[in-house]
Amino acid sequence: xxxxxxxxxxxxxxxxxxxxxxxxxxxxxxxxxxxxxxxxxxxxxxxxxxxxxxxxxxxxxxxxxxxxxxx
Length: 71
Hints:
Elements: H1 3-17, E1 19-21, H2 22-29, H3 33-45, E2 49-52, E3 55-58
Antiparallel strand pairs: 1-3, 2-3
Helix pairs in contact: 1-3, 2-3
């Protein structure tokens, strides 16, 4: 799986569940926790998520019109 695909799936999971845990995502995608942290860093920099201890939550201020690379 490509990193962008994983990042988009994590964003979908955030939308559905409102929060994700690094350890759960690392196990699910069979990658290291550091890899997931980098994905969450990117989502946070794009304003789509807010990192929290051990995971992330969806950014409530996200509008419906997402950037092209996320769609």
